[in-house]
Amino acid sequence: MSVTVTNLAQGPGTLYTGVFGTAEPADSAVNTTPAASGWTDRGGTDGGIKLVMTQTFSELKVDQIVDSPGRRLVKRDFNIQTNLAEVTLENLALAMNGGTAASGSGFKTLTPQTASSATQPNYIASLLDAWGPNQKRRRVIARKVLNISNVESAYQKDAQTFIPVDFAAHYVSESVAPFYIQDEVAA
Fold it and tell me: InterPro entries from the entry (predicted)?
């Protein structure tokens, strides 16, 4: 078996977020920073940024054969997970899926949302810039996400504090996929 070493990738990614519906950078701009186009860089992360796709299949069965004749996809979850290393109130509000930030002379505050359970959640979009094959950029856009992890930060004597996030992608429409992946290729 031959190995194409240029298809190997290593290195950190950068996580950006925007409001749900933020204009996505053009495919031809995969090698440019998206911050100028309405995306906010969420700063340092710890432990990498992980893409997780979980697919659930329903098995087809018949009495006449012992082998499974097939399966059908019945559920797909797509998540972007990381630990935000910059424990700002803005990143905390992001992890809480919203809140009201305010500042004054020498202070900042964050008040969580106090909506009823029937209120529509505050969906956002997330964008991951990372490395792909041939030392070129890979961009992963999740168009409609919510943080579904617990919001927790440990303040310890001998360990750094983080804000863990797990952005779960959600259905957008019949014509718009919940996530999109772009690779930069040699021109």
Answer: Bxb1_TTP-like
Q: Mind spelling out the 3-state secondary structure of 30-59?
A: CCCCHHHHCCEECCCEEEEEEEEEEEEEEE
Site of tokens 């069965």: 61
Q: Write b or e for each residue in 80-100: b if 16 or more Cβ atoms lie within 10 A of its Cβ, otherwise e.
A: bbbbbbeeeebbbbbbebbbe
Alpha-carbon span 61 to 71, nearest angstrom? 9
Q: How is residue 5 annotated by DSSP? A: G
What is the β-pairing status of strands 100-104 and 107-111? antiparallel
pTM assigned to the model: 0.90
| Residue pointed to by tokens 């106090």 | 114
